[in-house]
């Protein structure tokens, strides 16, 4: 069975990852609309637990899954109850309330999460282990009181925090866990210059982009930077590459990696060096890069997969580093088309890149109807997206471990 699946992080006030919400849907829903919704929901849930590996997606952290109550009445495959929270929507509680079944789940050690704009009656609330408050619709005067009345043993999450202003409000109101894409929005960009180390990395990338490539000159420049030397040797000797013999020299390392891989890894090092950005933002960036590359491979753009990768990799450069993309592009001799695509300039030359990036962003948010529409426009089989995304997040997680 083919399913759409994506994960959205839940962060604490220090922007460390508390857990994930897993968004999912049967990717064939539109093609088989007559299918019983109860059966369809169960199929996708079984897919999550068996084919995708729900615990792998969560990396050992709590997982939240929005699940209709009727699905939980079905026979589910084995799953780790202690780390999974089943989310029940406020509307379902209001319309199809079954207290006896809620009690049964609670006493069977199911973790239940309530999601809505207001709290249910205390007689119901006590059976829920977590509460998500929807900041897009919850009145401020009500939501601001909730942190004071929620018992300390329950997980309270400010949900749909989509900008820094809402995040600051939630923080001030006493919320300690947050879900939304507020952390991927750029704040005030700094006007200061790149550090000396960053300039050195940019210069090496520039040399690698040159037609007159000389590996001995690249080696010499890398050796000037002790941090970069250690980073590259550690990287090339990591399990990510799995070379049989230990690589001991910088020259051997860079020749083994080659021009394209060196450019990719140096940009990743540039993004991660001395950044205060949340780890999840780096994961999203790497996932975007890999997914963009995979999308290019799925289409007639395979010969441009490195360009797609680069545009995905630099899509959040300003958010991660605090520097503008324009400031970065001054140092990189990229083509006008790629530079414009990185800056988000829409024209006939950049459109295919920007459409692919838009598809990736829609997928991140779980906007499945628009994902299907965009796949159709780009001539991509939408039922492939779940597998491509899982490959991308797996690669991103492994890559971050390699350069940590």
Automatic annotation (TrEMBL):
Name of the molecule in the record: EAL and modified HD-GYP domain-containing signal transduction protein
PANTHER family: CYCLIC DI-GMP PHOSPHODIESTERASE CDGJ, PTHR33525
Coiled coil: none
One Pfam family it belongs to: HDOD
InterPro entries on file: dGMP_Pdiesterase_EAL/HD-GYP (IPR014408), EAL_sf (IPR035919), HDOD (IPR013976), RNase_Y/CdgJ (IPR052340)
HDOD domain mapped to chain residues: 194-384
